[in-house]
Prior knowledge:
Distance between the termini: 16 Å
Strand content: 5-15%
Oligomer: single chain
Number of strands: 14
Largest sheet: 7 strands, mixed
Order of helices and strands: HHEHEHEHEHEEEEEHEEHHEEHHEH
Bound molecules: pyridoxal-5'-phosphate
CATH architecture of the largest domain: 3-Layer(aba) Sandwich
Number of helices: 12
Structural class: alpha/beta
Number of domains: 2
Amino acid sequence: xxxTVVPFVDLGPATRxxxxxxxxxxxxxxxxxxxxxxxYVERFESAFAAATGSLYCVGVASGLDALRLxxxxxxxxxxxxxxxxxxxxxxxxxxxxxxxxxxxxxxxxGSDLCLDPAGVAASITDRTRCVLPVHLYGQMADIRAxxxxxxxxxxxxxxxxxxxxxxxxxxxxxxxxxxxxxxxFYPSKxxxxxxxxxxxxxxxxxxxxxxxxxxxxxxxTRYRSDYVGYTARLDAMQALVLTHKLPHLDGWNRQRxxxxxxxxxxxxxxxxxxxxxxxxxxxxxxxxxxxxxxKPEALAEFLGxxxxxxxxxxxxxxxxxxAFRDLHAPDGTFPVAEAVARETLSLPIFPGxxxxxxxxxxxxxxxFFAGG
Length: 372
Ligand SMILES: Cc1ncc(COP(=O)(O)O)c(C=O)c1O
């Protein structure tokens, strides 16, 4: 057990599940020369729309592009406000600023570490144009409450589902209750490409058409631009990779759930660990298994010395980063998110993680709290 190496993420098992068939199809794509737009991209868009239960899917180059282009399509003006959670990956904030609006930060709820609907209600002003919840670590925010709130005020609801492929809450999938949902297919995501890729799903035909135009120079039709756009298309090779991987998503999410259940059973009551939980009504897809402890860095070092790699998500909330110094939100402004940042440590989790690897993580973690 002691010499079992456990990477934080091993993409090998998922890659091996698709590689033989994928290579055959890739050869077809290369021979056909269909590298940009075209049938490979459309095939994935249809499949992902069906998988998410949405009417439209627009493939783009990254999760950030999906968020940014959706926000640009809302026609935000300087001074317009978008409500974002204080604990997220920085891309959520970047998209708002790059679309020309202002981040209004709201602390996360202690129960699900996602945007707190009560905090959102208290922060809505007459400049609020959009609420942007993040479905953090694989668990959705309270989408029913947020949808009721935004619908009653005529505010857009854009979901950052970059960590939550396949998740539901109260039976609702991302992208259904609100305006749209943005996905990243960064390689280590629950559904990951072999490079960068992303998508927006929505029920709104007009929004889908606008984002489709924005991803390619604002073109409604070739060489007829309605907007100032971008080069932000989903690459055809990545679309093909995703088409091959999508049928495995539910099974891979189940494997993540089984790994999470092992950690939650074996690490219960160990040291000062606070273990992650799924709130009632949430179908958690365990993008990350993130524990909390007073000494995350010491634990990470101890595990690393025993062959167990870990990650921290995220040691610095965006409002405390130099990039967002203009928010003038010093340490102490968002106590729940800041406590998460101080205490968080993510243990290895990925489809195909073996029993021996899980046991090695558990044994090393128990060893740390038993005094080495
Ligand atoms: C919560 C969240 N939002 C946005 C993104 C941005 O996705 P991408 O890296 O594909 O641009 C990520 C990806 O890491 C993410 O985790």
